[in-house]
Amino acid sequence: MPAVTRRSPWTRWTGAALLLVASAFLTVPAQAAPKSHVVQSGQRLGSIAKRYNVTIEDICIANGIRRTDKIFPGQKLVIPERGKAVPPKPAPASKPTSKQSSSSGTKSTKSTPAPAAKKGYGHPLVHVVVKGQTLGAIAQRYGVSIDAVCHASGIDRRSVLKIGQRLIVPATTDPDGSHARRLRIEGRLDGPTGGTSWQKYAKAPWRRGYITIQSHSQSWKGYVFGPGQKILPNARKGIFRVLGVRSGGPVIDDQLIRLLAQVSDQFGGRPIRIVSGYRETSYVHDSKHKVGRALDFSIPGIPNEALRDYCRGLGSVGVGYYPNSTFVHLDVRPSPAYWVDYAGPGEPPRLTPERPRPTVVAASTHTKRRPSTEAAGAIPEAAQETADAETPAPPKAPVVEAPPADAPSAADAPKSLPDDGSGTVDAPAVAETP
After folding, report:
1. What residues have CB less than 8 Å from 43, skipping those under 6 apart?
2. Which position has the higher pLDDT, 83 or 204?
3. In the list 6, 177, 323, 347, which could disulfide-bond 152, CB 3.0-4.6 Å?
4. The pLDDT of residue 348 is above 80
5. Which residues of 341-363 are buried (b: 16+ CB within 10 A; e: fewer)?
6. Are 423 and 376 in contact (CB under 8 A)?
7. Distances in whole angstroms, Cα of residue 106 to Cα of each of 92, 113, 122, 232
8. Which domains does the chain have, with CATH numbers?
9. Cβ–Cβ contacts within 10 Å for residue 372, how many?
10. Does residue 431 contact residue 413 with C-beta atoms inside 8 Å?
11. Rounded Cα gap, residues 37 and 183, in angstroms
């Protein structure tokens, strides 16, 4: 009978321990998937956070929402670990094609963003500040920089935030916030019908249909409508006078008068300052000012942004916003229109924030000799400020004059221009090919 070998208890326990240690090293623990919660009817962010033992701020950061945002039944929320919430990752930008990469002369696609990413700015968000929030926390929540939020919102890094203050948060594809800033200035954050900034200035009028209007030299106040909402003759006469219509001139459109009364009633019957009504001259050829269908106005105490947003909801009207001027344009037309004009007082229309650079026109050797001030390109500063449509040469740009008629050839032209006292400095002349 063969002998049976017995193992000691110490050997058995040692083998079991070795197996446990080996399994611990060989087994890779799977990362726990983030929890998610489907909102049920009647639930709030506070009750959901309490259920999972996290804070409301954790849920907001993980889902890219605000504490004041409404949640709806069926909405899916990500539930992070307490104190470890991270903002949701933005959608990756499209990669440049091989043709675009080769034309830019770079081999790495990470350092050269695709053209689509430059043009396709995401829409900015509006964040309402709550108690205890800072610029750093808000910027971190949305994955953008503090400077971008400040630039888009028109504030400084040292600004003190107030509860209820609205901040513009640019998209991650708008790194410096320039696109969001321009949308804010132009009033294009709230859709085609404007925003609601006017609502906090709205006030019931003391006497409905009673308006007070004043220009730089005329004023009138009184009731606009009589029985049947017909415009009273005295009202028509007074409004015509303030809007600059002389006897025998064109009439002011009735719809424009009704809009004027509606704006007055909406803002408590405050006095309306008329900047321009009827006029015979304009930079625009078919200006509605020339036919009594437009006016430029403001209301003391009401920001122009609020007037702009309210007027954009009036229906078939044209609304012009002028960030560098003191008025809002309103006219009557068949279909709604809205534009932003960055021109200052007395300047021609300008649809971009940047002033156009003056074009340097090369001097021709066949031009006639001009006075020294013209040759030096000297133009009065006042003319430069009020005539952006012109393209004068820079004040100190040297101009090559034509050689004398008895000169043997263009190559014998003088190689420098003397200082004639007009600010022109010596510069080498360039001989043009005939």
Report:
1. 71, 73
2. 204
3. 177
4. yes
5. bbbeeebeebeeeeeeebeeeeb
6. yes
7. 20, 11, 26, 72
8. 35-79 (3.10.350.10), 119-186 (3.10.350.10), 199-340 (3.30.1380), 356-434 (no CATH)
9. 14
10. yes
11. 35
Q: Is the pLDDT confidence value at 161 over 50?
A: yes
CA distance 356 to 147: 27
Lowest mean pLDDT among 37-41, 199-203, 320-324: 37-41
**pLDDT above 90 (res 8):** no
- Beta carbons of 242 and 219 less than 8 angstroms apart: yes
Q: How far is CA 344 from each of CA 303, 321, 326, rounded to the nearest angstrom?
A: 17, 12, 9
Cα 376 to the center of its chain, rounded Å? 39
The CA-based diameter of the chain, rounded to the nearest angstrom, is: 139
SS (H, E, C) the chain: CCCCCCCCHHHHHHHHHHHHHHHHHHCCCCCCCCEEEECCCCCCHHHHHHHCCCCHHHHHHHHCCCCCCCCCCCCEEEECCCCCCCCCCCCCCCCCCHHHHHHHCCCCCCCCCCHHHHHCCCCCEEEECCCCCCHHHHHHHHCCCHHHHHHHHCCCCCCCCCCCCEEEECCCCCCCCHHHHHHHHHCCCCCCCCCCCCHHHCECCCCCCEEEEECCCCEEEEECECHHHCECHHHHHHHHHHCCCCCCCCCCCHHHHHHHHHHHHHECCCCEEEEECCCCCCCCCCCHHHHCCEEEEECCCCCHHHHHHHHCCCCCEEEEECCCCCCEEEEECCCCEEEECCCCCCCCCCCCCCCCCCCCCCCCCCCCCCCHHHHCCCCCHHHHHHCCCCCCCCCCCCCCCCCCCCCCCHHHCCCCCCCCCCCCCCCCCCCCCC
pLDDT band at 377 (very low <50, low <70, confident <90, very high): very low
CB 309 within 8 A of CB 279: no
> How crowded is residue 77: how many other Cβ atoms within 10 Å of its Cβ?
20
Strand partners, 203: 267
Virtual CA dihedral for 274, 278, 279, 284, nearest 10 degrees? 90
